[in-house]
Amino acid sequence: MSGFQLQHVPLLSRSALDRAEELRSDEQALKEGWSSAKVVRMNRRGQVRIDGDAIVLDAAVDLSPEPVDEAVFLGVDGGTQLWAVRDNAIDGTLMDLRAVGIALELDDLTLGVLSTALALLNWHDRAKFSAIDGTPTRPATAGWTRVSEAGHEEFPRIDPAVICLVHDGGDRVLLARQHTWPEGMFSLLAGFVEAGESLERCVEREIREEVGVEVREIRYLGSQPWPLPRSLMLGFAAVADPEQPLVFSDGEIAEGHWFTRAEVREALARGAWGSKGSEGARLMLPGSISIARTIIESWAVPN
């Protein structure tokens, strides 16, 4: 069982979005395509408007006759340009990425649109001033760069983070709960990669810091964009001795336990955090939008 692999591609890694990067610097082509383009409006909470089981895409010309600086170009779908814009005035039925992952079954194109829009808009919100010279920046290249008054060009920032399923090589897995999570909510251990650190060393350090456990046999499983606000999650598995005492020294983890494969399967059958039937259970697991659930499912129900 220690050699398990991901059974399917994580949801947010399945993007079918054609990013059409060759159009980002072609202002004329972008203007010509704007008349038939579609725009997804997203507020600062990362919510979009939902109609039934679909994401609402508005006509770009309802926003402006031509592309505007605050809109970001996402790509194309069958020749139709797709854009995103921050709009805090949207109303109706609103959902963020986590809620969408629980409530709706979205196609790979829509998942790519949402994750890309969220990542880009979050970056623009935090990049109003240059990290190089401190002067104000303006969007360029259809929202894929920002340029400072001094001419310095900056690109969207991605923060790599590891997420690791720690198991005993048999039928037990180590899951943990953060202080801010309700009772019963558990997931995998995760943390950001530090400067000058390899991914494997990050796995070792984060697990040691968070639960005091030494791991071995670290293996890469797969990755997933996680634009909350701008991460890339890199999934791993590692083996540890369950006899090691759990020590929560860095203050992030409230509790951790070794769960059996049978307990994990029961939790998976109940659904995700927040879904009907999961409330009050001893063990609740993340929703399908997270690579954590993909990894847990692949370990708990191997091929």
What is the gist of this entry?
The protein is α+β, with helices and mostly antiparallel strands.
The total of beta strands comes to 16
What is the string of SSEs from the N terminus onward? HEEEEEEEHHEEEEEEHEEEHH
Strand content: 25-35%
Task: Pick out the low-confidence regions.
Answer: none
Most strands sheet:
6 strands, mixed
What is the radius of gyration?
21 Å
Compute the average pLDDT: 93
Cα end-to-end separation:
10 Å
Structural class, from helix and strand content? Answer: alpha+beta
Number of helices: 6
Estimate the global geometry from the Cα principal axes: globular
- Residue share in helices? 10-25%
Structural summary, described in words:
The chain is α+β, with helices and mostly antiparallel strands and 303 residues long. It is 22% helix and 29% strand. The chain is built from six helices and 16 strands. It has helices at 27-34, 97-103, 108-125, 199-211, 261-270, 291-300; strands at 38-42, 48-51, 54-55, 58-59, 72-77, 80-86, 94-95, 137-140, 145-148, 153-154, 159-167, 172-178, 189-192, 215-226, 231-240, 253-260. Strands 11, 12, 13, 14, 15 and 16 form a six-stranded mixed β-sheet that branches. A four-stranded mixed β-sheet has the order 4-1-6-5, with helices on both faces. It has a three-stranded antiparallel β-sheet with strand order 3-2-7. Helix 5 packs across helix 6. The chain is globular and about 65 Å long. 35% of the residues are buried.
